[in-house]
Design brief:
With 98 residues, this protein is mainly alpha-helical. It has helices at residues 27-47, 54-97. The chain crosses the membrane at residues 79-97.
């Protein structure tokens, strides 16, 4: 029952198709699996104490340090951005009121 289409100079876009599979993040399950893996690694270390080296511990400490360092870097960038915006707003208010 659609009527006759009028000619157009502009090409109409077709509807975009997409396929979305939802993913769910379960924080408690993730933490539990991490704890289980850590306990298994500790049990394995106890069994093979002669094979255990401090390199593994150093690597994990470096990784934790880097993760803490990255978050502080983002927080610092955010604080700097807020200060710049605040300075711009104060300058704008000063010019308007002057």
């Amino acid at each position: 029952m659609s009527g006759m289409r009028l000619p157009s100079f502009f090409k109409t876009r077709s509807i975009k198709q997409f396929e979305f599979t939802p993913r769910y993040y379960n924080e408690t399950k993730e933490a539990m699996e991490e704890r289980k893996a850590r306990i298994k690694a500790e049990l394995y270390k106890e069994r093979n104490a002669s094979n255990y080296s401090s390199d593994h511990l150093r690597g994990s400490l470096k990784q934790q340090w880097k993760s803490n360092k990255n978050t502080t870097h983002f927080a610092q960038k955010s604080n700097t951005r807020i200060l710049v915006i605040l300075a711009a707003l104060i300058g704008l208010v000063y010019l308007v009121l002057k």
